[in-house]
Amino acid sequence: MIELTGSSLTLEQMKSILYKGQQVALNAVSLERVQRSREAVDRIVENDKTVYGINTGFGKFSDVKIDEKDTKALQLHLIRSHACGVGEPFSEKVSRAMVVLRLNALMKGFSGIRVEVLERFAFMVNNDIHPVIPQQGSLGASGDLAPLSHLALVLLGEGFVWRDGGHVPAAQVWNEFGMEPIILEAKEGLALINGTQAMTAQGVVNYLEAEKLAYSSEWIAAMTMEALHGITDAFHPAIHEARGYKEQVDVASRMLTWLEDSVLTTVQGEKRVQDAYSIRCIPQVHGASWQVLSYVKEKLEIEMNAATDNPLIFEDGEVVVSGGNFHGQPIAFAMDFLKIGVAELANISERRIERLVNPQLNEGLPPFLSPQPGLQSGAMILQYSAASLVSENKTLAHPASVDSIPSSGNQEDHVSMGTIGSRHAQQIIKNARNVLAIEALCAMTGCMFRGEDKMAPKTRGQLEGLLQVAEPIKEDRIFGPDIEKISDYLNA
């Protein structure tokens, strides 16, 4: 059980919640803050004090005063009108992350929401009630309004919930649990949808998948080195310490560990003096991608514990301030940076694939790893697929954050497009994983041609794992399913 306080959630905890089904509990001290914040909202309504989002309209309508009798209707209209997302839904894992992150943000006690709403959120997490949330429609400032509105709909007994890979009406789910939908009070609708939890939830899943892929890229590259009789001198610690980047030093160290006791690798001068950059510069390039991951991790863990509502309530209601914490610029930049870092893992992987299949570069391996060159094409078109994915990544890596389109009558005149960046990052990660799956297939074929008994013990262990899901290239076959199986294996 992971206790949510509003300020201490980590990526490691999110990993347990998302991938191991870990349940959540609500911190008692934080709930006291939530209660005091709610009492402040009730006083504002009772005293008819004009405060944005509590008894006013939203966006350009912020100057329209709302009568006390209409404050509940205001919240309902807000959620329904803003639930206009389109396109394919976010994955169920991202939906679960979104519920957890919105709950954690509200636990900070700055949003004026009732405790019972947060308890219902916790019930959703602990009973796998995951809203169906369309991916498209968020500008990433004034928060992820459209996606979070679809999340909030489920609380109201509207919208849909994931169930066995399909979608069922939320009202049906609450009926099954013998529970009534939530009826929102003043400020609560805005508290539910004003935040960055869509881009951040997708960002969390992106980071966890990218981190896993970055580690996998190293043992796959090590297998490629064995297949190509790569020179291990390039990983000598002194080289990398002389430059000073910790991530580069770490990659070089891990590469030497993967290749320890290999009979297939060489030293400089044994076959050639030095390798091509895609082999020799693995620590420099992969290490730079690890630097990107470190940056992204730092920003995500801040945002996961951030108050991103507007207005925010401080000092038990004595101070209520409208600001812009809903603006997704920090995560927009982080996701655009992540796109570049992961795309580069695929770029250099594709160049290693080319060396594995090109008879002028592959150190005596069969041309295109073909069992019968000419009669059988072998891995020729596998390299085409990798090149296509890498090219697509270059388009997707264009930064979303450099764009902004004004909205709400120019009241909201600068937005982040961070949710677009996070969605594109997810596609880049998928593409990169497929590229590395292709490299793994080619590398395992090359290593088995050389003799798997000559491999390093650690890379041979990875080869044995790969052989559980795919075979090396022994004859031409439909390779698409192999790529998919290895990709799933890399993400397991």
UniProtKB/TrEMBL annotation:
Q: What are the EC numbers?
A: 4.3.1.3
| Pathway terms, separated by semicolons | Amino-acid degradation; L-histidine degradation into L-glutamate; N-formimidoyl-L-glutamate from L-histidine: step 1/3
Q: Which InterPro entries match?
A: Aromatic_Lyase, Fumarase/histidase_N, HutH, L-Aspartase-like, Phe/His_NH3-lyase_AS
Q: What is its main location?
A: cytoplasm
Q: How is the protein altered post-translationally, as described in the entry?
A: Contains an active site 4-methylidene-imidazol-5-one (MIO), which is formed autocatalytically by cyclization and dehydration of residues Ala-Ser-Gly.
Q: List residues, modification 2,3-didehydroalanine (Ser).
A: S142
Please indicate if the UniProt record lists Magnesium as a keyword: no
Classification via CDD domains:
PAL-HAL
Please give the Gene3D superfamilies that the UniProt record associates with this protein.
Answer: Fumarase/aspartase (Central domain), Fumarase/aspartase (N-terminal domain)
What reaction gets catalysed by this protein? L-histidine = trans-urocanate + NH4(+)
The answer to whether UniProt assigns keyword Lyase to this entry is: yes
For this UniProt entry, the molecular function terms from Gene Ontology, in alphabetical order, are: histidine ammonia-lyase activity
Q: Which UniProt keywords apply?
A: Cytoplasm, Histidine metabolism, Lyase
- Please state where this protein is localized: Cytoplasm
- Which residue numbers mark the cross-link 5-imidazolinone (Ala-Gly) in this sequence? A141-G143
Q: Which HAMAP family match?
A: His_ammonia_lyase (MF_00229)
**PANTHER family per the record?**
HISTIDINE AMMONIA-LYASE
User: What does the similarity note say?
Assistant: Belongs to the PAL/histidase family.
Q: Which NCBIfam families match?
A: hutH, PRK09367.1
Q: Output this protein's name.
A: Histidine ammonia-lyase
